Automatic annotation (TrEMBL):
Residues 57-149 form the 2Fe-2S ferredoxin-type domain. Ferredoxins are iron-sulfur proteins that transfer electrons in a wide variety of metabolic reactions. Residues 18-56 are annotated as: Disordered. GO terms for biological process: electron transport chain. One of its GO terms (molecular function) is metal ion binding. Its cofactor is [2Fe-2S] cluster. Binds 1 [2Fe-2S] cluster. GO terms for cellular component: chloroplast. This is Ferredoxin. InterPro entries: 2Fe-2S_ferredoxin-like_sf (IPR036010), 2Fe-2S_ferredoxin-type (IPR001041), Beta-grasp_dom_sf (IPR012675), Fd_pln (IPR010241). It comes from Asparagus officinalis. PANTHER family: FERREDOXIN, FERREDOXIN C 2, CHLOROPLASTIC. Keywords: 2Fe-2S, Chloroplast, Electron transport, Iron, Iron-sulfur, Metal-binding, Plastid, Transport. The keyword Methyltransferase does not apply.
Length: 179
């Protein structure tokens, strides 16, 4: 388990929102229904920097693949995916480095700062796409998860003359085995 030293020394007071169906490993999956997350309160000391307290923003993630909605608070200086995971919220991801499109979302409202998002082009960023693994909220935001292959096609499809490339699950298994 990775623990951020600055968070341990100065944890932030967060209202945590989680979805009960995603926090229990053996719970049944709900598809096609929008489940509002339940509020949990965590008491802790406020995060402060040399310039004062770090602003915190409400993040709403509409997970289209699982049919659930997650709402939680994220400090402006923390990655959205990392904060969600620390609150036992399951969101799609793969590389955690901003190099793929597994955690891609479409921003419906608000702003995300993502200087390390190498997995999506400037063109897609300008159309409202973002990566949760390297995204920092700069305001309250609402985002919707996207199909990884769809985002990949939007970015690279024009380079392939015969249409989308078939996914090679065997190659993916080999790659994941190297980790």
């Amino acid at each position: 388990m990775n623990v951020c030293i600055s968070c341990t020394l100065n944890p932030s007071p967060l209202l945590l929102f989680s979805n009960p169906s995603t926090t229990r490993p053996n719970s049944p999956k709900r598809r096609g229904s929008s489940v509002k997350s339940q509020l949990k309160t965590v008491e802790s000391n406020p995060v402060t920097s040399s310039s004062g307290p770090v602003p915190t923003h409400r993040v709403t993630v509409r997970d289209r693949q699982r049919g659930v909605v997650h709402e939680f608070l994220v400090p402006e200086d923390q990655y959205i995916l990392h904060t969600a995971e620390s609150q036992d919220i399951t969101l799609p991801f793969a590389c955690r480095h901003g190099c793929c499109t597994s955690c891609a979302v479409r921003v419906k409202s608000g702003q995300i700062r993502q200087p390390e998002a190498l997995g999506i082009s400037a063109e897609l960023k300008s159309k409202g796409y973002a990566l949760l693994c390297v995204g920092f909220p700069t305001s309250d935001i609402e985002v919707e998860t996207q199909d990884e292959d769809e985002v990949y096609w939007l970015q690279f499809g024009r380079y392939f003359a015969r249409g989308p490339i078939e996914r090679d699950d065997y190659a993916l298994e080999l790659a994941m085995g190297d980790e």
